[in-house]
Specification:
The complex is a heterodimer of chains A (about 200) and B (about 325).
Chain A: E1 23-29, H1 32-39, E2 48-54, H2 64-68, E3 75-78, H3 81-94, E4 99-105, H4 107-119, E5 127-131, E6 137-141, E7 147-151, E8 155-157, E9 164-172, E10 177-182
Parallel strand pairs in A: 1-2, 1-4, 2-3, 4-5, 6-10
Antiparallel strand pairs in A: 6-7, 8-9, 9-10
Helix pairs in contact in A: 3-4
Chain B: E1 6-16, E2 21-28, E3 41-48, E4 53-59, E5 70-75, H1 83-90, E6 96-100, E7 103-104, E8 114-120, H2 124-135, E9 140-147, H3 154-163, E10 167-171, H4 180-185, E11 191-196, H5 199-211, E12 219-221, E13 233-237, E14 242-246, H6 252-258, E15 277-282, E16 285-287, H7 295-300, E17 303-304, E18 310-312, E19 315-318
Parallel strand pairs in B: 8-9, 8-11, 9-10, 11-12, 13-19
Antiparallel strand pairs in B: 1-2, 1-6, 2-5, 3-4, 3-6, 3-7, 13-14, 15-17, 15-19, 16-18
The chains are: A alpha/beta (about 200), B alpha/beta (about 325).
């Protein structure tokens, strides 16, 4: 069942420059570029800022050119999300205490970036997340432990084990995915109506 | 219902660590193993003096892997309320004491990438057990230990021998000081800072860290300060319909305990929140000395932490 107000459901806010930090790392994906363009005028010229961006997204929103045109001192544009996350990992490895991370993009991208950040023990007061673009979910099959990206419907066929999964609102930050459980376990073949839930 | 279970122990050994610090080894009277604990834990020792009962928290400094005995260190404070003098003058090998179960309000972060421990004087005690935990694990760590005079270097010298370069000693009597700004300026992401020492040391360390952009979630401290003294007042317990007098040198919690009231507590230093009580009525003002209540709580005037806070009033009515 889809239950509103599930505690694990991620809460997102609008990115805001945090002056208590010493170094600032912005990571954007697809529509998340809108958040970066919005905060750009608020950023103090003296602040130490790096930006990583990828235009790869489900919605096709690529703001690479717009971002390149607004005078970041250190902007890296990458063609894929995987490459952007890899770069995030490399930058965090070299980063010092006092760094603030700002992530904007789809829910799946934010979750994946948080997984990288967790390896460096970044906590909620060092990390801001803004959701932009697709609400498609990454779904983890609780039966065969396969994850699949870009799920937009309440029921999805698991590509690992072929079960019909009901996509729950229960989110795992460790796995950066929503839990999917067999939808017709009690009465085989009896499935809830298929709906577009998180397009 | 008793809110805090106690353990009956006997003092098995007493050792002078420095001219002011004694180390006490405690064993269970009934024999056998004591409850497990982790680095950063403390126990509250109940000291039944003539007129007053003291309950002072002391960090466990022995190895968490040795549960045959607990070790605590007590610094003699001649100007203190009397708990440390009780331990130094009245407790001998064979004395029976009552202690609480270990509680950890100063735990190490398990997910840290690096741990920086900072200790001043007798503040080294929780850090000793923390180091014992850390030396058995994979996380990088270092200790910066500041003390006054070579006769107080005892714990430091011992740690240096065991852990080499991870341990840096600073003798303030020789003018050596921890350079906090440099220390916190170049640490990798995921570093945590733990400070146990005089309050000025914590303030200085945390201010340097904040100035270098460290967030609060990476800053940890513990300090067992005695409850501040004040003016005597009367407290009335609305539910149990009792009236208790709180003297100037007594904490509100101690006054309740002296009247036989089994009020809840854990840390007795205003940090843990366990003893929070609701205020029903007050004809003066609350003096908050805790680190627990939020700014809104304080403004509301509806809550008090009786372990360290008191009231400047004639009569305080509590919901108990």
């Amino acid at each position: 069942m889809l239950v509103p107000d599930v505690k694990s459901r991620p809460q997102y806010q609008q990115l805001r420059f945090d002056p208590s930090g010493r170094f600032h790392l912005f990571v954007g994906q697809g529509d998340g570029g809108l958040a970066l363009l919005r905060v750009r005028p608020e950023l103090p010229e003296s602040a130490e800022i790096r930006v990583i961006y990828t235009g790869e997204s489900l919605t096709g929103c690529d703001l690479s050119e717009e971002l390149a045109g607004c005078g970041w001192r250190q902007l890296k544009v990458l063609t894929t999300q995987v490459a952007a996350l890899q770069m995030l990992d490399e930058v965090l490895e070299q980063s010092l205490m006092g760094t603030r991370l700002y992530v904007a993009g789809s829910e799946g991208f934010i979750g994946a970036a948080e997984q990288v950040a967790a390896r460096y023990n970044l906590q909620s007061d060092e990390l801001q997340r803004e959701h932009q673009g697709s609400s498609a979910r990454r779904v983890f099959c609780v039966h065969c432990q396969t994850s699949q990206d870009d799920v937009t419907t309440n029921i999805v066929l698991c590509r690992g084990c072929g079960r019909h999964l009901l996509v729950r609102d229960h989110y795992s930050r460790r796995l950066a995915a929503f839990m999917g459980g067999m939808a017709d376990a009690e009465v085989p073949g009896c499935l809830p109506e298929l709906r577009e839930g998180f397009g | 219902m008793k809110t805090v279970d106690s353990i009956e122990v006997v003092v098995a050994a007493i050792e002078d660590v420095t001219p002011l610090i004694k180390r006490f080894t405690l064993r269970k009277i009934s024999g056998g193993l004591l409850p497990p604990f982790s680095g950063g834990c403390h126990v509250t020792v109940v000291m039944r003096g003539g007129e007053r009962t003291f309950r002072n928290p002391y960090s466990l400094l022995g190895s968490p892997r040795n549960l045959d005995s607990y070790e605590i260190a007590v610094r003699r404070d001649d100007q203190g309320r009397g708990g440390s003098l009780f331990m130094h003058q009245l407790v001998t090998v064979g004395t029976r004491l009552e202690i609480s179960h270990p509680i950890n309000l100063f735990p190490l972060s398990k997910l840290a990438r690096k741990q920086i421990l900072i200790a001043g004087g007798v503040g080294i005690t929780p850090v000793l057990a923390m180091i014992d935990d850390l030396s058995a694990g994979p996380i990088d760590w270092e200790l910066h230990y500041s003390f006054r005079g070579t006769e107080h270097a005892c714990f430091g010298t011992w740690l240096s021998k065991r852990h080499g370069d991870r341990v840096r000693l600073y003798d303030t009597a020789a003018g050596q000081r921890i350079d906090f700004a440099t220390l916190v300026g170049q640490q990798p992401l995921g570093t945590h800072l733990y400070v146990c020492g005089p309050s000025q040391m914590t303030v200085e360390a945390f201010e340097s860290a904040r100035a270098a952009g460290w967030p609060e979630s990476h800053l940890h401290t513990e300090q067992f300060a005695p409850p501040p003294v004040g003016v005597a007042f009367e407290v009335h317990l609305a539910k149990s319909e009792q009236t208790v007098q709180v003297s100037a040198e007594q904490s509100l919690l101690e006054a309740l305990e002296a009247a036989g009231i089994d009020a809840p507590y854990l840390c007795r230093s205003g940090a843990c929140g366990r003893c929070e009580l609701n205020v029903v009525e007050l004809d003066g003002e609350l003096i908050h000395n805790d680190h627990w209540l939020t700014a809104e709580d304080r403004i509301s005037g509806r809550k008090i932490m009786p372990c360290v806070s008191r009231a400047k009033c004639k009569r305080l009515v509590l919901d108990w």
